[in-house]
Amino acid sequence: MGAMSGSIPWYTMMVLHKRSPFFQRVDDTLGVFHTHAVAGVLGGLLSGFFARPNLLRMMYRSNRYGPGLLYCIKDRNLSRGLRQMWFQILGALFIIAWNAVVTSLICFLISRIVDLRMKEEELDIGDDAVHGEEAYALWGDGEKTPASIRKHMRIPSIGRRQK
C-alpha cells in the first residue's frame, strides 16, 4: 500500500496531468487533486482489499465488516470480499459528493467577498511580486519590491464583489 500510495498519485500528477486535456484546463498548482483525491480513494480501496480478518475482529466486535478481498480469495468466500469492496466504493463516492458540495458552497460564499483568482495581468507579474515579496528569501536576504513598482497593481478589496 505504501509503494502504491506514493507512486500512483505521483504518476497521475507528473505524467497523466500533462497528457490529459481536462487536467490542462484545471488550475491545480499544488496538486491537491492528486495528493488528496487520488491518494484518498486509492487508500480507501486498498484498505478494503487488504483488510486482515484478525485486525477487523480486534477493532469491530460484529461480523458486519468482512475481511478484505485478498483474504476472501484465499478462503474462497468471494462474496464477503466483494461486499467489503462495495462498502469501500460507496464510502469513496460519498466523500467525493460531500467534498464537491461543501467545497462549492465555500467557494461561492468566499467569491461573494473576494475574487477567487488573480487577474491575468497580475498572474503575469507573479504572485510574489504582487505582494512585494521575493520567493525563497532565507535569513533576511530577500528584499521587498519597492512600492513604486507595485503601485499600478490592483489589490482586491474585502467588500462585496463588483459586477
Automatic annotation (TrEMBL):
The keyword Ribosomal protein does not apply. GO terms for cellular component: plasma membrane. InterPro entries: Ammonium/urea_transptr, Ammonium_transpt, NH4_transpt_AmtB-like_dom. SUPFAM superfamilies: Ammonium transporter. GO terms for molecular function: ammonium channel activity. Residues 24-136 form the Ammonium transporter AmtB-like domain. The chain crosses the membrane at residues 29-51, 85-110. The keyword Transmembrane applies. It is found in: Membrane. It is a multi-pass membrane protein. It comes from the Eukaryota. Keywords: Membrane, Transmembrane, Transmembrane helix. Belongs to the ammonia transporter channel (TC 1.A.11.2) family. This is Ammonium transporter AmtB-like domain-containing protein. It comes from Rubus argutus.
